Amino acid sequence: MTSNKTVMFPLFILMVLAGCGGSGGGSGSPGPPVVGPPVIGNNVLTITVNGSLCSDNPSYLNEPCVSVTICSPGSTNCQTIDDILLDTGSYGLRIFNQAVTVPLTQVTSGSGLLAECVQFGDGSSMWGPVQMANVILGNEPAVQIPIHVVDQGFGTPSTLCTSPNSRPDTSPFEANYNGILGVGPFAQDSGQYFSCSGAASGSPCTATTPNAKVINPVAALPVGGDNNGVIVQLPSVPADGAGSASGSLILGIGTQTNNTVPSGVTAYGVDQVAEFTTIFNSTQYASFIDTGSNGLFFPSPSATQLPSCPTPNTVWFCPPAANGFSASATNTGASGSPSGIVNFLIGNADNLFNTSNLVFGELGGKAVNIFDWGLPFFFGRSVFVGIDGTSSSLGTGPYWAY
Amino acid sequence: MKVKVCVVSAGLGLMAAALGVVQQAWATLGGSADSVATDRKALSAVQRATTVKPGYTVQEIISDATHVREYVSLEGIVFAIAWNGFMPPDLTKLLGSYAAEYQQALQNTPRQTGVRHQHVQGKRVIVEKWGHMRNLQGRAYVPVLVPSGVSLDDIK
């Protein structure tokens, strides 16, 4: 209860300052935490949706957090960092420089220093150097890999990582997390790399082809170990939400006794941009499954049955029906098969936000021409993410399975 | 149909030159169809397909990092731009005379953390972004320039 209050307070302040519609305006106290079954093993990271692992910074609705350990390369000089956003929609580990206390080794590029610019779907971006770190996930063996240290003061940021091309994240407080752990179904990210003549702010940077790219740390686990993907397991959430929820990120698929594939799980292959298709309202959309999106986002099929909420919550849906908006969609693998139906419910966001809860399974909002199965899709499911070029009993990645 | 549009846009370009109309260096959104070629150079891209639709054409230019589609009215005016790819294009070049307006509107638009969608409404231009790493998408359009009968759903 105490931890919920500490999260709520800064969130409320932030909302007043930024005027962003969202949550937490309710008068009641948040519902009790929802806790998934414990999973034991060296390949398990606890996920808290809001809750304790998100408490370093202000939080937003449906924010899944994990904790990651990084060390100076080849050493035991390590730190564990909480409030890392779990993101199946990106690839690689990115941590704000303000959160890094152990020395890391800068990756060079020709005679310069390697830096990267990445953008995200919300128009935000991250800029900063690429540095080598020993990364430890759960109690897995440390892997020495390039990570992205987010630092807008490093060199001269690419114009793609400055306004108005994007909204650069400059601090954990602003982003609401200390970093991002990208564990989507590919090993490599898709940012642009630069060689900077120096680390000092203002040092020139030019586009380059890197000799080392930021990599999904799961893909870097030892071959024959748990490097073929992850399972995201989160519990069901009550209709009017919960104050927080916790579950597990299990590394590897069918590689240990705690990550075997139960019967009834279907794998859906994805294309080279990690998308499959969703047919909804007789329309086919490119789609993806993403812990880093905090709602289900799709074009509304009806302005009367599923309208957006009035100001200030216009990004969310506010269906007028007392029982919310009930719908189904059909997901199909990128190759054209298999297909499976997903039923879902969208609640009235204004009513949900009146509860003082932060975690909602029935939260949705409008999108332009995609179907984004965000975090609510994960509640009450085990979702398997198969990494490109690796195999399991579910097939060869890249795939989603559930 | 393709030929006709090319003739019309070339004609407008000549007319603009003859009248001494100064073209923006990167005039694109709101500019004449000629600026598609300027964009192609600015983005180090190659021009791919031109698709003829009722009431407008779509010119696609492709680079390693992104696909850009420019929506051109029968009068030869770029009324919308859409993109998708590994990295979004440099909007300061593509938005032309609307870039400053967009920058100001962006500063006045609060960030919605967690929502992988951004909607920025300027006085005249609307810029939206969505998607995820490996396929970052967006579109920019000027509502008063969108030809009647063209649905916003077609701009994607």
Keywords:
heterodimer; A: 402 residues; mainly beta; Cathepsin D, subunit A, domain 1; 2 domains; seven-stranded mixed β-sheet; 3 helices; globular; B: 156 residues; 7 strands; disordered N terminus
3D architecture notes:
- The complex is a heterodimer of chains A (about 400) and B (about 160).
- Chain A is mainly beta.
- Chain A folds into two domains: about 40-205, Cathepsin D, subunit A, domain 1 (Beta Barrel), CATH 2.40.70; about 230-400, Cathepsin D, subunit A, domain 1.
- Chain A contains three helices and 28 strands.
- Chain A has helices spanning about 1-20, 170-175, 350-355, and strands at about 35, 45-50, 65-70, 80-85, 90-95, 105, 110, 110-120, 125-135, 145-150, 165-170, 180-185, 190-195, 205, 230-235, 245-250, 265-270, 275-280, 285-290, 295, 325-330, 340-345, 365, 370-375, 380-385, 390, 395, 400.
- A seven-stranded mixed sheet of chain A has the order 22-21-18-19-24-20-23, with no helix packed on it. Chain A has a six-stranded mixed β-barrel with strand order 3-4-12-5-10-9.
- In chain A, β18 and β19 (about 285-290) form a beta hairpin.
- With about 160 residues, chain B is α+β, with helices and mostly antiparallel strands.
- Chain B is built from four helices and seven strands, in the order ααββββααβββ.
- Chain B has helices spanning about 1-20, 35-40, 90-95, 100-105, and strands at about 45-55, 55-60, 65-75, 80-85, 115-120, 125-130, 135-140.
- A seven-stranded antiparallel sheet of chain B has the order 1-2-3-4-7-6-5, covered by helices on one side.
- In chain B, a hairpin with a 4-residue loop joins β5 and β6.
- Chain B is globular.
- The interface between A and B is large, with 58 and 36 residues.
